[in-house]
């Protein structure tokens, strides 16, 4: 894979990790998603009253785990973003790729974990962003010969 390909792959992975960190933050600090999930799992087993006590403590442990995962995902995300900056032809390409990947990953993870939906205007906006990203990555970089010709003038 050429250097630019590695930069795009690292940027996309950094965006995904950023979206995962946001999901873990929402689980840890948001509404009682974890408590409701614990109660729903206990109700499915027919132990609704008996599982209420353990769910109180279990969801606190799960929240602490999610906070830890926020920090872990952010640390790994910055590592991949730094690698993307090294391999990309420009910092703009790495930044736009990571941002687009983050938006798309956030949309899918939000739908998967929280049942969120996005408006049509949001999808139009991300489509325009992806078209710009495509132009950014397919534009031919200036060759060394073209740059040396400019210096000679």
UniProtKB/TrEMBL annotation:
Entry keywords, A to Z: Membrane, Signal, Transmembrane, Transmembrane helix
Native organism: Pelusios castaneus (West African mud turtle)
Signal peptide: 1-30
Lineage: Eukaryota, Metazoa, Chordata, Craniata, Vertebrata
Name of this protein: Transmembrane protein 42
Stretches that traverse the bilayer: 56-81, 93-114, 120-140
